[in-house]
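Hi support team,

I'm filing this because I wasn't sure whether my run with pyridoxal-5'-phosphate finished correctly. The job status page said complete, but I'd like someone to confirm that the output block is well-formed before I use it downstream. Pasting the exact inputs I used:
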Amino acid sequence: MINPLSPETLIQLADQYGTPLYVYHAEKIKDQYQRLKTAFGKTDAVFFYACKALTNINILRYIRNTGANVDCSSINEVRLALHAGFPPARILYTSNGIAFGEIEEAKQLGVIINIDSLSNLEKFGKKFGRDYPIGIRLRPNILAGGNMKISTGHDKSKFGIPVDQIAIILDVVRKYNMLIRDLHIHTGSEIEDADVFVKGIDILFEITHHFPDLEFIDLGGGFKVASKPGEKETDICLLAEKVGAGFAKHPYKNGKPLQIWFEPGKFLVSEAGFFLTRVNVLKETNAADFVSVDSGFNHLIRPMFYDAYHQIENISNPGAPLKNYAVVGNICETDTFAWDRSLNEVREGDYIVFRNAGAYGFEMSSNFNSRFKPAEVIVMEGKAHLIRKRDVFEDLLRNQVEVI
Ligand SMILES: *Cc1c(COP(=O)(O)O)cnc(C)c1O
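And here is everything the job wrote out:
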């Protein structure tokens, strides 16, 4: 395991590039990928980085160089992946509720496609028949993931074609003689329990015999990382053991198991990311001592959006006594990062770091309150590189058409 970036390094970067600032530790990403590769060493498994977690082009290129493939959630992510140099055969487009035109475009670009609705399956079959292999995204009707907002495979979820509609799926597939190369499920995010994946496998293997052209089973992403000290992540070695055994139980072509695909997003980039902010104002009240930093949910929406926990540290005053604070932002809207959080005594001007900020951090940021989006820096082989400039005022007016 590599050492995380030290507080001294983070302070230096905050001084040099200003705050708010996202910092990514490249080697940590590689390390996480290697951990997966090692855990699944005995299994025929392939990993597609779910790039909606973080799409900076340098991150995509770095991940391409590690050997991982990429999973996209929109045609623009597909274009970014191509721009980053991924060959089409290493790009997967797992669609969800998208216009058929985008699927046609993805086919034109030659990437791998998972279709998630009967409507688009029918359109694809009608137009292309057996000409182009595809995968089917199924909804396995299992409840999994950290909380309802990040759960995607349950029986009220919009994602995938419900597995109970298998008869209709088969009608469409047979009518157009379609080439179904993979079955896909993605049940949610922050799944700690390896048995959830085993349950998914059992459900899929009840129907695989209907699909003679299958080559892969895609189990999606959702591996959990530890967000607090002492918290557990998904035990990937146990996962590899259980999933490997699950696949071995169901030999497929020529007695060989199907290849296993995964789409980890958070697992690869979450812990590599640090979000650096600076304290604007300290406000002591009878409810709480508020620490207002130079950011808000416009830059890191996860706490407000899905009650995500981020470890927060005052790196400017280590060793000072611990006090309880409410860490909040500076935008005009309630934007609490953390309530009742213990930090080394905070002074105005101190740097406050949010850990596990690599996934769904910058990627979900906005210009709300007409504030600038943060800059991004990557630290690679001990050297820092700016990989996205902070917005400037002109960015706020870009694309606006001034007619009045
Ligand atoms: C978001 C998403 C993932 C990644 O989820 P993580 O929790 O970040 O691992 C994987 N597959 C699909 C289809 C997704 O939508």
